[in-house]
Amino acid sequence: MRKIKSVSDLERWRQDIISKQKENGVVISVCGGTGCHAYGCKKVRDQFAKTLRKSGNGQKIRLKFTGCRGFCERGPIVTIQPQGIFYQRVQEKDIPLILSETIEQGKLLEHLLYEDSTTKRKVTSEKEVPFYKAQQRLVLGNNGLIEPTKIEDYIGIGGYQALSKALFNMKPEQIIDEIKASGLRGRGGAGFPTGRKWENCQKAPGDIKYIICNCDEGDPGAYMDRSLLEGNPHSVLEGMIIGAFVIRGSHGYIYVRNEYPLACKNAETAIKQARKSGLLGKNILGSGFSFDAEITKGGGAFVCGESTALIASIEGRIGEPRSKQVHTVTQGLWGKPTNLNNVETWANVPLIINKGSKWFSSIGTEKSKGTKIFSLVGKVKNTGLVEVPMGITLKKIIFDIGGGQQDGKRIKAVQTGGPSGGCIPASLFDLPVDFDSLTQVGSMMGSGGMIVMDEGTCMVDVAKYFVHFLEEESCGKCLPCREGLKRMREILDSITEGRENEEILSLLEELAEVVADTSLCGLGKTAPNPVLSALRYFRPEFEAHIHQKKCPAAVCMPLIQYSISEEVCTGCGACAKVCPTQAIKGEKKQSHHILSEICSKCGSCKDVCKANAVMVQ
Amino acid sequence: MNFEHVGKIIDRYQEKRTALISILHDIQDRFNFLPEEALRKVASRLRMDLNDIYGVATFYKSFSLIPKGKHSITLCLGTACHVRGGPKILRELTKELKIEPGQTTADKQFSLNVVNCLGVCAIGPVIFVDGKFYGEMNPIKTKRIIEKINKNKKRNEVKS
């Protein structure tokens, strides 16, 4: 690896990398995101490497093991450049065929192409896949172009150009103005204007200042920070170095969840490479500016996503938040001014510096600029990470990109904002998605989880789920959150067990308001949102549990019973085969029945019954 | 148990109190849990109160004060996994293993953990078994994974 001592060094390195890349005739990229890993992408990659080595083709063909491509549900994903071929669900056995048919003879392998579910047409390139069509992948798009563990790949696509521009052509104040003018707001959830935060930190008195990158990503159902840090760690690091230059920070920390080992590993590699090549450490690019960074691992506590709790955790203490009368930009890590931003926020910074605030602010809505990455998951056909311009409607995300309902059940809501957000009903799906519109309807942007729910999802159960989650994750420091959530959970438990009456809902609402009004930190203040939004839009579901003692979505176990319709059952025996408790009895080609005393109500039988004979009451 | 290694871990972090969480992670990686003896050593070397160390060790979910089983099963119950049937997988796991989350089977073969998100939301429900992710789980697939581990164990016993 070269040691880069000046801007011209960096440029020369880039040119060398580009001309070297041109020598490769074909580039095969295997997605190495965590989703694809679950489908065995490592085996696919290894098989490619083995076969290429054997055939001696290794020279002309470059094999890349990239970061997450977003369309996790269709993994393992393989793309072939320059032809732009997009293969999905690739298995080890397909590799010899890909090499002999596609690479050598230019023939497409039908069974690996994606089929557009509406037109039933097979599509060849990524651009034609409906999942990608409506997206604008400014931040996430590079994941597919580079190998996250190779700094050369990042340099080759213009990496660290923004840093050299910031260090040599801009003053810190100019950078702040540029970030302010871009309208970038914090992607971690609250949406605080990034430029203003930087300005406050820059103006805060003190010789020692710190930079923190928040990759705690505790919101269940959101994983864009993971994919960014895993797939393009240098972009995050570049953003952090620019931020450090602005506030004159000397040291930075990337706080990563313990559940994300690959993100830790790739970020660690990126830091080492940047240090070795002179982009991190003393006298960066010969500018006289010095900054270094390191990784800190979390310990699995949701509350540590909150800035003051996160700081306490880096300091080696219990992750309890403190009052924010004095902000962390003035007194943060070890009492020093600290600038903390989320992974996605940092990754947006190099883009803004490179392309300018005017370009950035042309994307999005009046008060929310740029793009946002969402994790589109739950009961929707196409699941994965999607990056869309702010202001796009929920309908477009869920139906155009997500492909709509998954298994015949009508979509009824989408949950955004994680445990601090709420459920938005399908009647509001024309809503343009930005920070303010989501807050107006009782939810919030949060870090970008978008969990789609259909008729098979019980909204009381979802509210209960979040309160359970928050009760468990409450640090216990202040009473309203600690005890209030416990009581709310008890109420929701008894509603789902059919043990409550009408008055309980007003008590639940009152409790929710007290918890929101009197808790210290963001966790408690927003904790009642999932319950309040469920009550606001799905009250009849609560009432069905209370009055009719029924769960309309057939989820709440004490209120449901499985049975098989004698008339409809064909006696195929599929249900009996999958029943984990052997609760289904019956002769072949004869109607089957369920022994309710040993039935675990898991629903496996209903999932496999082709005749629709399994009933839930 | 050889606790010499604990000293080496603390050396690596130059006895910094701020590195406590990282030190505990490293100790857990080595011993599979946090043994009392190791925590006492950390307390004396970092000149900290043992109470504070236990405070941190019990506050963060990643740490365990009891030995873990040979095979670790982690079930994700993030929102996406929850709405796609995560609780059914939990019921199946507790039924098959006869333990609750956070516990280890009597034969020290399995440890069961539940986490609030593994960040593999697109293919939920997800379980993480011995370093490998399994997506789109259902009760019967869960049962088969456990059966397979047990079968391998038996086969290995026969071989040896």
List keywords for this structure.
heterodimer, A: Rossmann fold, Ubiquitin-like (UB roll), 5-stranded mixed β-sheet, 4-stranded mixed β-sheet, B: 160 residues, alpha+beta, Glutaredoxin, globular
- In CATH terms, what is the fold-level topology of the largest domain in chain B? Glutaredoxin
Helix/strand-derived category of chain A reads alpha/beta
Largest sheet properties of chain A: 5 strands, mixed
Helix content of chain B: 40-55%
**Rg for CA atoms of chain B:** 18 Å
Number of helices of chain A: 24
Strand content of chain B: 5-15%
Share of residues in helices of chain A: 40-55%
Shape of chain B: globular
Find the structural class of chain B using helix and strand composition: alpha+beta
- At CATH level 2, the architecture of the largest domain in chain B is 3-Layer(aba) Sandwich
| CATH class descriptor name of the largest domain in chain A | Alpha Beta
* CATH C-level category of the largest domain in chain B: Alpha Beta
The low-pLDDT segments of chain A are none
In round numbers, the mean pLDDT of chain B is: 92
Distance between the termini of chain A: 66 Å
Assigned CATH superfamily of the largest domain in chain B: Glutaredoxin
Q: How far apart are the termini of chain B?
A: 25 Å
Number of structurally distinct domains of chain B: 2
3D structure, described in words:
- The complex is a heterodimer of chains A (617) and B (160).
- With 617 residues, chain A is of the alpha/beta class.
- Chain A is built from 24 helices and 19 strands.
- In chain A, a hairpin with a 7-residue loop joins strand 17 (584-585) and strand 18 (593-594).
- Chain A starts with 6 loop residues before the first helix and ends with a strand.
- With 160 residues, chain B is of the alpha+beta class.
- Chain B has 2 domains: 4-59, no CATH class; 71-159, Glutaredoxin (3-Layer(aba) Sandwich).
- Chain B is built from 7 helices and 4 strands.
- Chain B has helices spanning 4-12, 20-31, 36-45, 50-59, 79-83, 86-97, 139-159, and strands at residues 71-76, 110-115, 127-129, 132-134.
- In chain B, strands 2-1-3-4 form a 4-stranded mixed sheet, with helices on one face.
- In chain B, helix 6 (86-97) packs parallel to helix 7.
- Chain B is globular, with a radius of gyration of 18 Å.
- Chains A and B meet through helix 2, strand 11, strand 15 and helix 18 of A and helix 2, helix 4, helix 5, helix 6 and strand 4 of B.
